[in-house]
Amino acid sequence: MAPLSWRHQTLIQALLSRGPLKEDVFRSIFSKVVGKSSGSQRQQEQQKQQQFNDFLRKINAELSYVQLELRACRNQYDGNVYYGLVNNVSDDQSKLGTKYTVPQIAFYRGIVEAIMQDPEAGGCIFNTDALNIRLETQVYGASDSQSQGGAAQIPPAFRNFSMSQKEKTLDQLVKDQWLSSTPDGKIGIGVKSFLDLRSWFRTNEVPACEVCNEAAVKATLCQNEACNVRLHDYCVKKKFSGKKGERVCPGCGTQWHGSSVKSEAVEEENDDAVEEENDASHSTQPAEPSTKRRRRSHHEAKAEIAESGPSMKRRRRSNQEAKAEIAELESSLSSAVTHNTSRVTRTSARTAAN
What we know:
Layout: H1 6-18, E1 21-22, H2 23-34, H3 41-63, E2 68-74, E3 81-87, H4 92-95, H5 102-116, E4 124-126, H6 127-131, H7 142-147, H8 156-159, H9 163-175, E5 179-181, E6 186-189, H10 191-196, H11 198-203, E7 220-221, E8 230-231, H12 233-240, H13 261-281, H14 298-308, H15 319-353
Antiparallel strand pairs: 1-3, 2-3, 4-6, 5-6, 7-8
Helix pairs in contact: 1-2, 13-14
């Protein structure tokens, strides 16, 4: 096999120096290195895809001699695809190449195990829970030794690993993309971990997604407690996007979460119509025809439901409820007018009598 050219080496160097790259960034580098292709736009896309696949195969063929692999993975939190280099060997020699100490690695391993043990497959734990992880549980046979009064077998470095050291290690793991941080103060799996721990997920029997067969770290569970089916959020969209009618679990047939998205979208459109009519009643300008207003598509409504989460559970007003409120308001106004009229009549009668 011919040696790698400078184009192959550029891609490898980009991953080594910058770490895992999003697919669009990695493909942009590839396009600049390879250059433009001839032919129509469709032919150019096909040629570029074929070149891309050939590049990856050739790079991996050469990297296999040093037990490395250029691999792609999907970030289960945002659905984006990333490319990165991983080490395929886990031995004592390979462990010498890390900058993390033994207690720091044990701390990282404890966080990953805690995330995997979440029965709801939320894919993250609170920052405080991560900091409170005890390193003693990462020592092989620590539970047995402690039950027999052999706590002295725990390394001093584990017992002396302070809270400030945990905080610094946690920040560094997030910075290095081994872990990830959410705005609400939770810790999840990082892109490097998704790339590097694929075999670890399988060895430790982490439940897999029913669609892509990858570890379902961040996934949605079937509502049937007796069913073990898990689906990634992006796999749910892929599986049910082209299907009509109700969405059901592929394992037990139970109705899947969010199967009434279409009806909710129609309900939201009705709400928008009520609001627009109310706004028009207070406006001095004539209202535009209702047929011209923009209606949200099914996908937009679905995206808003996924983003807003629990807040979508709020009570929605229907057209009937809005009409009932208007009728009640008109009845109250009518009663008030009648009451005021009767008062005026009585006052006029007393005045005439005097």
